[in-house]
Amino acid sequence: MAPPLSRRSLLQASALAAASLAAPTSPAAAGVARAPSAAAPAPWTVLPFALGQVALGQGLFADKRKLMLDHARGYDVHRLLQVFRANAGLPTGDAVAPGGWEGLDGEANGNLRGHYTGHFMTMLAQAWAGTGEQVFADRLRTMVGALTEVRAALREDPQVLGITGKFGTAVENVRGSYQYVDLPSGVLGGTSAVTLSAWVKPTHDGAWARVLDFGDDTTRYMYLAARNADGVPRFAITTAGPGAEQGLNGTAALPLHQWSHLAVTLADGTGRLHVNGIEVARNTAMTLTPAALGTPLNHWLGRSNYATDPVFAGAYDEFNVWSRALTAAEITELQSRRAAASSAGRGDLASYAFDETSGNTFADASGRNRTAALRRTWGGPSHPGFLAACPETQFIDLESRTTSDYTKVWAPYYTAHKILKGVLDAYLATDDARALDLASGMADWMHARLSRLPEATLQRMWGLFSSGEFGGIVEAVCELHALTGKPEHLALARLFDLDRLIDSCAANTDVLDGLHANQHIPIFTGYLGLYDATGERRYLDAARNFWDMVVPHRTYGIGGTSTGEFWKARGVIAGTIGATTAETCCAYNLLKLSRALFFHEQAPKYMDYYERALYNQVLGSKQDKPDAEKPLVTYFIGLTPGHVRDYTPKQGTTCCEGTGMESATKYQDSVYFRKADGSALYVNLYSPSTLTWAERGLTVTQTTGYPREQGSTLTFAGGSAAFELRLRVPSWATAGFRVTVNGRAVSGTPTPGSYFPVSRTWRGGDVVRIAVPFRLRVEKALDDPSLQTLFLGPVNLVGRNSATAYLELGLYRNAGLSGDLLPSLTPVAGKPLHYAVNGTEFAPFFEGTEDPTHVYFRRVEPRVVFGTTDSGVANPARSDGTTLLDEIWAGAPFGGRAALLARVRSTVDAWVAAGLLGAADGRTVVRTAERATFAP
Question: Which of 36, 93, 853, 872 is packed most tightly, with the most Cβ within 10 A?
């Protein structure tokens, strides 16, 4: 049943911080059930608008989003569901898993599979909320329905999956189901002679997957493998481990997706292996017989006594065991008919026809009535709420693990977060109660697992790199708790407290050096949610201080952070630049944290950072071309000279491709905020868009080509409402910030790095014009001032050059009186925001190309030059690297030429007096400045 609205309202309030996924208000969504509005958490003084309330206009963001929406429309969601269905032993049809991190053969044995599906669901939810296109809601409902079936299947014993067999019905063992057939004890009956016969259709070429394995452990056993290390069938028997195996090896690999017959006879010291009726191996020195094994504990079809061996993937038809060695003629006869119809008859020790089409047991037709059962290697879920694309074993292993090994345990709670968030977002977007039930069940299961563990165990788990990573699960569980009101869900969120990190950051003690960046950034967005739910101040203090430890002290010009996924010492930027800098997930999560902090405290620095990262790294991480198969998003963005962005990273379906899909469908989520009491409207970003503020009876349409246009226009429509319009004045806006309302200038002095208020009763037809002139400036690496990056307004300009050494640039040669360095560059005709200098074209970082780029360059100003007039005097420098020209131009902007000349004279006098510049050279510098002509 759908939950009561009061509970939904609570979730809506919490979900505002995430993406505000109320169903869209666009005409395309007419008639769709909408989530009710709700009060936000009490600590929030500013609220966001839902995605459906802010429509993107034509421009840079809409162009990027269109590429991702096309991908979301076209990608087959059944491919994403394949690993979930396989884990539950359900039919997967013809669907092929995406591969990469989302497949069984991906990095670290596919231990992260399921995460990408969660990202994809969030993308669909955001796409539906932002566009109202029914296709996105339909795809979400398909996925929710499938996951509901998966959970139901996991709650039960595995069920027979019948398919067409060699002679009739066969049983399929889907790869990734970890299912096997468990035969009862005593099948071999102590026989000293035996024939083992099986029809198999393997679907995967994994080495050492067992057709059968009867034994106690890895010392006493008898097995038949479809493929050994050489890719051919092998039979072996031993009572003293692998070194004492007596065996038979085939001569060719069994073909995949085809039926093959395997038969092994063992009697009188001779073993024979037959493949499709042909003897392919004989060993006359096989002294061991099944009798030597005694009564093995395990009698398995499809599972190995070696835990690391893969489970057999494919299908079984008949399996028979005789207490004698069949003749070659009898084995040949089995190729064309069932054993029951052959001269050999059914196996007298065991005979399974696998004709069952339901249930989880298999009848024994040998007359001994030894019924077999279908089982999972891992047993089954510990709780009915369990939902995953892999067994629960990683969660179990993590609880005793003391060292990280992602080939064994790779961030299972991180993956759980992505799935949980995906189904939560599906519920918010479509009002599908099944999705909420899935989410609530997952939280119930996690609470049942974690609440029984000692505090010390939890702290150890969450402190493990990679294995203990849990992503944004605290945030998602807080959202869920706001909906369900279940105390267990709030308690679950608190079980992820990483006390050492919280306490250090709350005390403003920087302990980030050496930590994995993306493992920790999303934690703090969750801790803000815990502050909202509990009022505990340490969560808020920790989040605020943590943000200040990262921005700007560990942040590159494009807004990214991390090198090789980790943080280094505070203030080291140049010293960390490499080919694996700026993991894209980090920017995504820092944006979320900045946004959440702004809800609590309207510090302009949060939105300044938001603009920096969004307009540069996030936009630039998406390639500007369509692709049906991949989202085309970077993982790392290398900042080394000549780096070429890789939009198909690693093996695919990575975390950054997942967050990249999300980013590209919520570009509008922070353009506008509103004061919690409705008394103010914040314009945070200048982006073409239309806001529908239904509560105030107004729409606000923002028309702009920003950042290709240096300003924006807001046009009001609808009724009238009195409130304060707060326009963000970017911290870089030192060239002025001018506002007019209906053509009349607004009085006041806008301050860079603040919000400029305009109070009035707004009416339909009002027009606000914002002019924000751009200047070209440099930003210096904190640890090496000579390593710099170029910005024109909010836009990072990068050199396109294949050189692998830092470019050397001088920029003072034609600097303007305002301090603007742009006159030193030459515009490229027909290419907005493209400029040339020293033969290299500089272009916006946000352009998703595959050009080799230089984000940072080496600043070299060898001689004193003013207005392109070269003095011939070497540009001296202090011991800290500050040059004479640096000190002169640090006084910009200048009110006029006289002010600049005064600055030149005073600086020269000081440098001469300090012995840093010769008197004669000083006079030459002054005369050159006096002769020069300066740009404005």
Answer: 853
**What's the pLDDT tens digit per position in 28-52?**
333 333 443 345 889 999 999 999 9
| pTM for this predicted structure | 0.95
Other beta carbons within 10 Å of 1: 5
List the structure tokens of 298. 């395990």
Q: What residues have CB less than 8 Å from 933, skipping those under 6 apart?
A: 867, 869
193, pLDDT greater than 80: yes
DSSP 680-724: EEEE-S--SEEEEEGGGTEEEEEE--TTSSSEEEEEEEESEEEEE
Spell out the residues 6+ positions from residue 825 whose beta carbon is closer than 8 angstroms to its own.
776, 811, 835, 836, 837, 842
- CA distance to 109, 207, 579, per residue, from 231 (Å): 20, 7, 38
Residue 726 φ/ψ, nearest 5 degrees: -110, 110
The full 3-state SS of 719-734, as one line of letters, equals CEEEEEEEEEECCCCC
Section 194-204 average pLDDT: 98
**CB neighbours of 453 closer than 8 A, spacing ≥ 6?**
399, 461
Helix then strand count (H, E) for the chain reads 23, 39
Nearest to 19 by CA among 789, 486, 669, 571: 669
| Cβ neighbours of 872 (radius 10 Å) | 12
DSSP class of 149: H
Asked if 390 contacts 113 with a C-beta cutoff of 8 angstroms, the reply is yes
Write the pLDDT tens digit of every residue in 807-856.
999 999 999 999 999 999 999 999 999 999 999 999 999 999 999 999 99
Q: Token digits for 771?
A: 């002019």
Looking up tokens 């969450």 gives 462
Q: Measured between alpha carbons, how far is residue 858 from residues 593, 655, 780, 834 in Å?
A: 32, 33, 10, 20
Cα gap 875→514, rounded to integer Å: 39
- 3-class SS of residue 439: helix
Q: Which is it for the CA torsion 432, 433, 436, 437, positive or negative?
A: negative
- Check residues 39 and 196 and name the one with the higher pLDDT: 196
User: Residue 768 carries which DSSP code?
Assistant: E
Mean residue pLDDT across the chain: 95
State the SS3 of 512-575. Answer: CCCCEHHHHHHHHHHHHHHHHHHCCHHHHHHHHHHHHHHCCCCECCCCCECECCECCCCCCCHH
Dump pLDDT digits (tens) for 330-387. Answer: 999 999 999 999 999 999 999 999 999 999 999 999 999 999 999 999 999 999 999 9
Per-residue confidence (pLDDT) for residue 21, from 0 to 100: 74
Backbone φ and ψ of 533, nearest 5°: -85, -30
Cα–Cα dist 267/290, whole Å: 10
CA distances from 240 to 186, 215, 457, 735 (A): 21, 12, 38, 83
pLDDT tens readout for residues 287-299: 999 999 999 999 9
Query: Across residues 531-546, what is the average pLDDT?
Result: 97
Q: What is the tens place of the pLDDT at every residue in 445-480?
A: 999 999 999 999 999 999 999 999 999 999 999 999
Report the C-alpha gap between 734 and 196 in whole angstroms.
84
Residue count of the chain, please give it: 936
Which H or E run includes 398?
helix 393-398
Q: Which of 669, 662, 719 is nearest to 689 (CA)?
A: 669
Model confidence at 302: pLDDT above 80: yes
CA distances from 820 to 615, 655, 773, 824, 935 (A): 21, 40, 11, 9, 9
The DSSP string of 368-383 is: S---EEEEETT---SS
pLDDT at 449: 98
Q: For residues 630 and 776, give the distance between their C-alpha atoms in angstroms, rounded to a whole number.
A: 36
